[in-house]
Amino acid sequence: ERMRPDGSYPNHGGKPVHFTFAPTSDVQNTELGGFRVRIWDNAGEVVADSGNLTGPPEHSAALHPGRYVWGLQWWTQDGDFSPWTTSEVVVAPPSGFWNGIPWLGDAQ
Predict the structure, then answer these.
(1) I need a surface site. Which of 28, 45, 48, 72 has the fewest CB within 10 A?
(2) What is the C-alpha separation between 87 and 96, in angstroms, rounded?
(3) Contact at 8 Å (CB) between 34 and 108?
């Protein structure tokens, strides 16, 4: 049996980052029982942990600009767990962050 989450996310500075995934399994009639999302900073410290969730496969977290690793584990209605899967996300500074800096394109 293979269970694998696929993730996608926007990385808008100044807004919560919305994490979504599509749980897939090679076993027919597998249903999502729950999931957990963790987010680590560059130092490997957990900066967000959703705890065990049920419902739609999504979670939002307010993150400061920077580079993060997010991880996901999900389980079936029968209690079979997927392995932890990770991916990187980069959160950009909010719009207007570079205003007033001429060599970065500001005409003032």
Answers:
(1) 28
(2) 28
(3) no
Closest CA to 66 of 38, 42, 94, 91: 91
pLDDT tens, position by position, for the chain (108 residues)?
Answer: 333 334 444 455 557 888 888 888 888 888 899 999 999 998 999 999 999 999 998 898 888 888 899 999 999 999 999 999 998 888 877 666 666 766 666 555
Q: Using CA of residue 52, residue 53, residue 59, residue 61, what is the dihedral sign?
A: negative
Sorted by sequence, the CB contacts under 8 Å of residue 97 that are 6+ apart come out as 13, 65
Q: Round to whole Å and give the CA distance between 50 and 39.
A: 9
Tell me the backbone φ, ψ of residue 104, rounded to 5 degrees. Answer: -105, 20
Structure tokens at 8: 């996608």
Neighbours of 82 (CB within 10 A): 20
Task: Identify residue 27 by its one-letter amino acid code.
Answer: V
